[in-house]
Amino acid sequence: MKKIAFVFWCFVCLSVIFFFPSCRKKSSDRETIVLKAADIHGENYPTVLGLKEFSRLVKQRSGGRIIIEVISGGAAGTEIESMEKVQFGKLDFARVSISPLSSIAPNLEMLLLPGEFTSELHFWKVIDGPIGDNLLKDLEKYGFYGLCYYDSGARSFYTSTKITSLSDLKGMKIRVQRSPIMLEFINALGAIPVPLSFQDVEKAFEDGSLDAAENNIPSYETSGHYKKAPYYFKNNHMRMPEVIVGSKKTLSQLPESDLKIIFDAAKDSAALQNLLWLEYEQTAEEKLKNEGVQFINPNQNELKMQMEKLNKDFFKKFTPEQQKLIRQIESAL
Q1: Which of 4, 165, 169, 259 lies deepest, with the highest CB count within 10 Å?
Q2: Non-local CB neighbours of 129 within 8 Å, separated by 6+ positions
């Protein structure tokens, strides 16, 4: 009889432990949480170093309880593949350009208009202000948490043959990111858009599938694309931020206190990333010049007129709500 009573009370105790989580909350709170963050760039690239700072801050502020492993060099797939993994809960974080992200969240396209930002100050006033915050919040509708923006400088065209004007791009095959507005931009220039992942660009230059591409100076340098396209036409047609996106599917399972640690750490990591970006950009440009790359500065008056015409054409294609947002961006300075 005593044996039966002992077994009964053991069963009751185990039931309390396993069926009432609050009875083991203290234990679970101390469990290590391992999350993964991906980037297509190499170990020492500014965005990867930014992710490592994000990881360090989260670990420090959680008392070592939350670990974020940074996967660099495209080991988790292309930017689009990483983005989709995050959206469907197969990956916790990814650093992505807003260009491919805008194919899922259309309002981000309002940050992609060629020549939209009149200066770096204008750009950061928009990104760090209410407009930028609202666009990050809007990502939740699509299965993402928008954590913060990273700097990625200004983008320009680079070509295998020398050009001195945007009109020289007519008829050229130009690599673009998979974004509706980028496709329209290249078409408007009379060129042929070729949507390709970043990792496939070098091979496309080699086999003649491309005549040109567009990107920022650090990406142009680290990728080695300058060896195939040694002319960098410094037209700075757009500044597009990078975004750290988190998986709403996986992160929503964490308590609010942990989410706050993650969100705050991401925003704080951006300060270091922005500084590292500026340093890397200057170093990369000097290296490229030493390697024989020709930097071509366009006629600014001609460039301004071409960009203004393009923007007027783009503006008509947006919804009234999106046009209102564009006007807010233009008047933010």
Answers
A1: 169
A2: 332
User: pLDDT tens digits, residue range 34-63?
Assistant: 999 999 999 999 999 999 999 999 999 999
Q: What pLDDT score does 28 carry?
A: 44
Which amino acid is it at 131? Answer: I
| 138, 105 Cβ separation under 8 angstroms | yes
Report, in angstroms and rounded to the nearest whole number, the Rg of the chain calculated over CA atoms: 24
- Structure tokens belonging to residue 240: 């597009």
Q: Which strand ranges, in their side-by-side order, compose the sheet holding 173-176?
A: 192-195, 173-176, 212-215, 154-159, 231-239, 294-296
Q: Is 192 exposed, middle or buried (CB count within 10 Å of its CB: 0-12, 13-18, 19+)? A: middle
Q: Secondary structure of 85-133 in the HEC alphabet?
A: HHHCCCCCEEEEEHHHHCCCCHHHHHHCCCCCCCCHHHHHHHHCCHHHH
DSSP bridge pairs for 237: none
318 — phi, psi (to 5°)?
-90, 160
pLDDT at 18: 37
Tell me the per-residue pLDDT of 279-312, one tens digit each, with 9 for 90 and over. 999 999 999 999 999 999 998 888 888 888 887 7
20-26-29 Cα angle (round to 5): 105
Q: Are 147 and 252 in contact (CB under 8 A)?
A: no
Q: Are strands 144-150 and 93-97 parallel, antiparallel or unpaired?
A: unpaired
Bridge partners (DSSP) listed for residue 243:
96, 149
**CA 240/CA 243 separation, integer angstroms:** 10
Query: CA 112 to CA 237: how far, in whole Å?
Result: 9
Query: What local confidence, expressed as pLDDT, does residue 306 receive?
Result: 81
Whole-number pLDDT of residue 205: 96
Residue in the block written with tokens 């993650």 = 262
Residue 81 or 29, more confident = 81
180-197 pLDDT per residue, tens = 888 989 999 999 999 999
How far is residue 40 from each of residues 15, 169, 183, 197, measured CA to CA in Å? 47, 28, 22, 10
Q: Which helix (H) or strand (E) holds 71?
A: strand 66-71
